[in-house]
Task: structure prediction
Amino acid sequence: MRTLSKEKTRSLQGPKTPVQLGLRANWQQLILLVIINAFVGGMVGLERSIVPLLGQRVFGLVSTTAVLSFIMSFGIVKALANLFAGRLSDRIGRKGVLVVGWLIGMPVPFLIIFAPCWEWVVLANVLLGINQGLCWSTTVIMKIDLVGPARRGLAMGLNEAAGYLAVSLAAIAAGYLAATYGLRPQPFLLGAAFALAGLVLSLLFVRESHGHARHEAALLAPSAGQTASAAPLATMVSTDRPKGPSFKDIFLLTSWKNRTLFGVSQAGLVNNLNDGLAWGLFPLFFAAGGLSIVQIGLLTGIYPAVWGFGQLVTGALSDRIGRKGMIVGGMILQGCAIGLLPLLHGLGWWATSMGLLGLGTALVYPTLLATITDVAHPDWRASAVGVYRLWRDSGYALGALLAGVLADLFGVSWAMVAIGALTALSGVVAQAVMAETLPRIQQQCMRSSENAKRKKDGVWAASTAVSNCICNDVRNCEQEAEHSAWFCCFSLCQRCR
Result:
């Protein structure tokens, strides 16, 4: 039996398509992922205007904390799903995680439609949390993989804009359907259509992007044409250092050890803490103010609409002017907008405050993700994103619990004022602990501090670069590269890696 040679087989199969990074090279997959993330956002948007009212009017819940229990279950489960999604994506690839997330989300609308008691709604939100954690995290990671380092802010803006514009449109549509036909079942039939469409697109048309992350990691490795003086170091790094940090190291760096990543994680947590307030208390607050279900749906839709549209600009803007200022300003603006709501009255004033809240969130949301990707190495970037999203989405559970307890003790208005103040304080913390991470600005700082560096007894003197080291260590950066490459100063990361 004749067999083909390997060379002839390759010639018959055609040349292997090279992996390319960038928006232009991967625009078709990027557009597809944007559409899929819109379906992810639509799944959760259906709940934002009507589920709290469902708890009060259909199931007769009196306690605000009990009404917000569905957000607590959603937040806890989504936070954990984010963590596992990032790690699983690094280990087994992205596409499988995305498909599993959609399979888990399929029963959610039907559980709410046929729920005989409130516990069914809570269970539905457990599944929704897993769906959101796996699917949204994976679309974020895949866009980061595809776009490369130059346009991460823009990619995150596109991703988050699609998701939260869908949240807005779904919230408005659900409010209209609820006012026209009732709180169940018509609004949630949209959810069944969203889940089916997302599953089909993910299963049949999405391509695995893990290879793009490996390609970027290879580009960061020491090049073959490096100088002879650097060759011994490259040899030591390639043979002695571990392939990457342990998950414990990644968790500690993202959560606490790295001052910048700590600043990002706490800002993300507080951002979703106030979003949990918006999801759970705003419909009840507006209903108490005499608004109809249609008006409540409109107001709850304005906030994510401005948030979504704004990210089309703010994500790309952070690639030009930097990350830190937008994060600090956005958190303070959110705090002021929430604090204004109890002080004002009327549809027009409330709509203005919701718009300001959306603008503040748009400044923050894609910029926080872009900051994570500035610092994390491609080999463990998905895991770092998962840890960040663990902290960020745990804010839903903490926000629902805090808002419910404060509202039961002191009233809804005082709960909103307190959480608004906490949000503004988070911006102050970010200003105090974060460093600018945009690579272009970091490189400018590095060049300006080159003449300030000097070597003495094998240790670099303290400098701008060392002050920004992600492990806050003043040891020689070359020594760090040899023993713990992922701990090197991110302002020198291209050199170290």
The beta strands are 455-456, 459-460. Residues 1-16, 223-242, 448-497 have pLDDT under 50 and may be disordered. The CA atoms of residues 327 and 337 lie 16 Å apart. The longest helix spans residues 118-147.
